[in-house]
Amino acid sequence: MQSGNRLAAVDLGSNSFRLEIGRLEHGEFCRTEYLKETVRQGGGLDENRNLTEQAMQAGWECLARFGERLAGFKLSEVRAVATQTLREARNREVFLERANQVLGFPIDVISGREEARLIYQGVAQMLPATEERRLVIDIGGRSTELILGQGRTPRVMESFRLGSIAWSKRYFPDGLFTPKSFEIAEIAATAVLDEAFDAYHPDNWDSAYGSAGTVSAIGDVLVAAGWPSGHITQEGLDWILDKLVLAQSTERLRLPGMRDDRKAIIGGGVSVMRAVFKLLGIESMEMASGGLRHGLICDLLGNTGFTGDLRVSSVSRLARKFGIDTVHGRRVGTVASALFSQLTALPNQAEDITVHGRLLRKLHWAAELHEIGSHISHSDYHKHGAYILDNADAMGFSLSEMHRLSLLVLGHRGKLRKLDAALDDDDLLGQLLSLRLAVILCHARRDPDLSGMSLSRSGSSRGQIRLTCRSDWAEAFPQSAYLLREEVLAWDKTPWKLEVKVV
What is the chain's alpha carbon radius of gyration, rounded to the nearest angstrom? Predict the structure, then answer.
């Protein structure tokens, strides 16, 4: 990346949406602009876990403003992610369809552990490069991330479903502060976090760091009251609790350093923070200047502490964990990639070439993982594999990317009716067909003979695809020829038609 290039990160948090813009100057990222809007989308989930129209509209309007500021940026210069609220929202696709349009860039909904990785990455990037063992805590609107790491490398990452908005709505619904409500809220938070005690025991870290909104809100109040800057202590939390109880309600709360938009969720934030301090034995927490959006910038820069694409490491890790035959997976991936490249016309534009490369990489990853469910069931391993991928936390992947891999694994064998809706996606269909054919051609678990074989669209019809084989191929490989005839019948039951032609 050349000096002077622009970069931007968009963080769709449960409480605030943030936009960080900067330039790469002499190898360093220099912020040029920072925009933050309190959208509080995390408070817009109804009892059925759907985002209300009002919550979606507020999000769209904010993203439209961000989108105007990002006009002229390239796709490779912007990374946008959404966190816990959209992980929970049942109607997130409705929100995302328009959100992607008004922002002008794709928004990835990331898993809790991926969020934790990015948070640690952003925090560590802004700290001295030492081998210190670090505990990083981020209390957001609807989730809390705890990360253990050393230097710039995260080791243990977890995300818990509790935060300032969620706890305020549940335990301080009327905005009233009483000793009893705080006691109940802290007990509930401790119950959620209790499983973290062993992994995050004080013996496992040297220093604790806090990131993002709740930490900043508490720190601002303490500094305004004369407490030392840059740190949060147990004594400081006790002092804030006394002030909240004394005020009795959000309406009567008057604390220097506290913004008005924080008053409604400060009860939940303080109760979760106190539970974290007590459970993990924290005496003092240093306020970190880095966070999620800085982690996104690190990813854009490739400055993550990992070499190459982090998703490659995640695929390898999943393959090892589930005992996959990696040699066969790579074999299927090589054949599938070759077929897909034949089926799709090679693009000329640089951006189209980039998209084509991404499709090839994801197809190869799906091939490497297509047998991930085989240790659960031989006959239905594709169904179990799809479930595993839809629910796995894989570093570097968004939830939508993992879902796409799950669809390919689900559809790589068996009937196609289960993927009717997905077959409207031309790119997915090309990947799926290439993968299914590759699995057939590699069924003997050895490199297939592909000489004289090609895959192409036939005629003017969008739905006609032809696999051409040399005249002696079917006689040389009768089992493969039989499986291809069965594959033709499978596609006959869809709007797409596969023809096997011998020349």
Answer: 26
3-class state of residue 349 by DSSP:
coil
CATH superfamily to which 113-298 belongs: Exopolyphosphatase. Domain 2 (3.30.420.150)
Tokens matching residue 367? 């091939």
pTM given for the model: 0.81
307: left (phi over 0), alpha (psi -120 to 50) or beta: beta
What is the identity of the amino acid at 11? D
pLDDT in tens, the chain (503 residues): 344 488 999 999 999 999 999 988 766 788 899 999 999 999 899 999 999 999 999 999 999 999 999 999 998 899 999 999 999 999 999 999 999 999 999 999 999 999 999 999 999 988 888 889 999 999 999 999 999 999 889 999 999 999 999 999 999 999 999 999 999 999 999 999 998 888 999 999 999 999 988 999 999 999 999 998 889 999 999 999 999 999 999 999 999 999 888 999 999 999 999 999 999 999 999 999 889 999 999 888 875 555 456 788 889 989 999 999 999 999 999 999 999 999 886 655 555 667 788 899 999 999 999 999 998 988 899 999 999 999 887 878 888 889 999 999 999 999 988 887 778 888 899 999 999 999 999 999 999 999 989 998 876 556 789 999 998 998 999 999 999 999 999 998 888 889 988 87
Q: Options 3.30.420.40, 3.30.420.130, 3.40.640.10, 3.50.50.60; which CATH number does 6-110 get?
A: 3.30.420.40
CA distances from 203 to 111, 159, 207, 233, 421 (A): 28, 21, 11, 19, 51
